[in-house]
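Supplementary Text 2. Reproducibility record for the structural model of the 130-residue chain.

All settings were left at their defaults, and a single model was retained for analysis rather than an ensemble. We include the record here because the model underlies the residue-level annotations in Supplementary Table 4.
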Amino acid sequence: MVAFESFNSEPEEGEWYVVVRDLRTGRRVLHVPTGTPLAPERYFVGVGPVVGMVVKADGGVAWMAEELERSRPPEDAEGPAVSYLDVYAAEGSVTRLLAAGTDIDPSSLALAGSTVYWIEAGKPASAELK
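Retained model, structure tokens:
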């Protein structure tokens, strides 16, 4: 299995999807938006770009997406931007939001067996991929 982000981003529209394919058959196993925005807009799909992704051999997948609607640019030219991240998991036709906030480490997503891990507020967090 392979998982990747498919996106199209233009000034007046944006589409961000998570795609899982079976490399043996070429069959698309999953194709879902990167998340559900607070206020859906006509020409936008997903919440924003993927910053991390893990996939199981059976096609179960977890990812972190930067939620563009809630992320903020720096308050001044010298301050850092604030990224609002969502952690999602999808197995079959079910997509779940596992965590969301500005205190999630964007480089912390990991998979061991059927458990997905990330760091939130400096502490480990986890969920089972079924």
